[in-house]
Write a structure and sequence with these properties.
Order of helices and strands: EEHEEEHEEEEEEEHEEEHEEEE
CATH superfamily of the largest domain: Diaminopimelate Epimerase, Chain A, domain 1
Number of helices: 4
CATH class of the largest domain: Alpha Beta
Distance between the termini: 5 Å
Number of domains: 2
Radius of gyration: 18 Å
Largest sheet: 19 strands, mixed
CATH architecture of the largest domain: Roll
Length: 271
């Protein structure tokens, strides 16, 4: 089976997009993990699939699969790649574009040269346990870290640290994901406050591990920082290993993500 694809990136968070508007490739979990392999496949953090929506109120259906083949609810960086793909291939002239997701919807538009994503409503607290905070102990229980739970349709926990470079994000993130408190796993963010309008962030993502950028993670960190009065409720610059993006929270519990996205290359792979 020959499958055309487009490789894309947004702040180093890399994706492949497969257009299933007019055809259905019915990829299995094992085929997705094969595609994700950076040595024997194409390599990506997530696979994005564009389909026709069965709901006429949406322009498209937008599906997201992690590198381990699991389908997930949300991805802000992927959403910007999805929008750029639609524009590049001239599939729609609508502005904004709406898309149906696994558990909701997103709206995308152009804003001063950047792609703006309405990430939808958020809630504060872990819906599995109705808990706002989660505590972990490091360095033989000598250091306590307290994280705040944010739900954006996908689960996040954000820990505020003095310096993100001092955190073993892989080891700590993996141990938190394996906690029974998060039965569906969780995206783990480590956030450093730079000033009242800027933060530094690394995210250990469920199903993908440590990535160069995480759009929903940037939104979660912004929401947590505003809630704890660590930053102003305004446009926040979020610096991540792959680059910087901008987030903004609104009064109606919506959060917006702004940044660019680009095509890396296009090709065909035989599965």
């Amino acid at each position: 089976m020959k499958i055309p694809f487009t490789k894309m990136q947004a702040i180093g968070n890399d994706f492949i997009i497969i257009n299933q508007i007019d055809q259905n490739y019915s990829l299995s979990q094992s085929q997705i993990t094969k595609l994700a392999n950076r040595h024997f496949g194409i390599g990506f953090d997530q696979l994005l699939i564009i389909e026709k929506s069965d709901d006429p109120t949406f322009d498209y259906r937008y599906r997201i699969f992690n590198a381990d083949g699991s389908e997930v609810e949300h991805c802000g960086n992927g959403a910007r790649c999805f929008y750029e793909y639609i524009q590049h291939h001239k599939l729609s002239s609508k502005n904004p574009i709406t898309a149906q997701t696994l558990n909701g919807s997103i709206s995308l538009t152009q804003d001063n040269g950047l792609i703006a994503v309405d990430m939808g409503k958020f809630s504060i607290g872990n819906k599995d346990e109705s808990s706002l905070f989660f505590e972990i102990y490091l360095n033989n229980d000598s250091e306590k870290m307290q994280g705040i739970c944010i739900d954006l349709g996908n689960p996040h926990i954000v820990f505020f640290v003095d310096n993100v470079k001092d955190i073993d994000a892989i080891r700590t993130g993996k141990s938190i994901q394996e906690s029974s408190i998060f039965p569906h796993s969780v995206n783990v963010g480590f956030c450093e406050i730079i000033n009242s309008n800027e933060i530094e962030l690394v995210v250990y993502e469920r199903g993908s591990g440590l990535t160069l950028g995480c759009g929903s993670g940037a939104c979660a960190a912004t929401i947590a920082a505003i809630h704890l009065k660590k930053v102003e409720n305004s446009l926040i610059k979020v610096n991540m290993p792959g680059g910087s993006i901008f987030t903004q929270s609104s009064d109606n519990n919506h959060v917006f993500l702004k940044g660019d996205a680009s095509i890396v290359f296009e090709g065909v792979i035989d599965l």
